[in-house]
Amino acid sequence: MTDLPDLATLHPPFGLVLRAGDLTLRPLADADLPEYAALLQRPIFADPESPSVFGWYRAEPEVRVRNALSFQWHLRSAVSPDDWTLPLGIWAGGRLIGCQDIAAVRFAERRTVTSGSWLTLDAHGQGFGTLMRQAMLVLAFDHLGAQRAESAAAFGNEASFGVSRACGYVEDGTQMSTLLGPTRHEQRFLVTPETFRRPDVPVQVDGLTPELRALLGA
């Protein structure tokens, strides 16, 4: 029988792995989705009524999971040099605790990435949020050649503000959120390679193949 290619050969993002301290970041595969679905039903926000709660999190748990799985499959099918999002699962000590996205539009021309992230409530306050953002920025700046990384968070989301500042982001104006759910006033943040505050631990990046670089426009 002819040997079949592995999944990372067929879909290069699946081969990407980042390691930083106790954290491992990699794209979610189908085998991870049952654990991911269980994670989505656990608390993420201390106050579920806060204006900073994500619109997708306000759905009933069963609907939230169904929508999230559909979104994961959509992101995989939509990756192209013109527009891509890599949703990286976050594992700490082998346990899935959240997700860190990195995305870009026309990256080859703009050299700009955006990001979003979340952690389950029981993983808050342990430095994971800062380290996973820093690992993503090492990938963006050192390995993909990004010149800018942008982020935004709703006013009142002090945890996200704190992570951004700890990574060297500076305030970059405000905007109204385009995400689903109640309209939110957001603070924009910007970090560049020059202002980036690097982690205290090394970040190892594996699986950034020529095929993946081409797919991302890098």
Automatic annotation (TrEMBL):
InterPro entries: Acyl_CoA_acyltransferase (IPR016181), GNAT_dom (IPR000182), Ribosomal_N-acetyltransferase (IPR051908)
Domain N-acetyltransferase: 23-169
Sample GO molecular function, one term: protein-N-terminal-alanine acetyltransferase activity
GO cellular component: cytoplasm
Keyword field: Transferase
Coiled coil start-end: none
Cross-referenced PANTHER family: RIBOSOMAL-PROTEIN-SERINE ACETYLTRANSFERASE
Protein name: GNAT family N-acetyltransferase
Organism: Brachybacterium avium
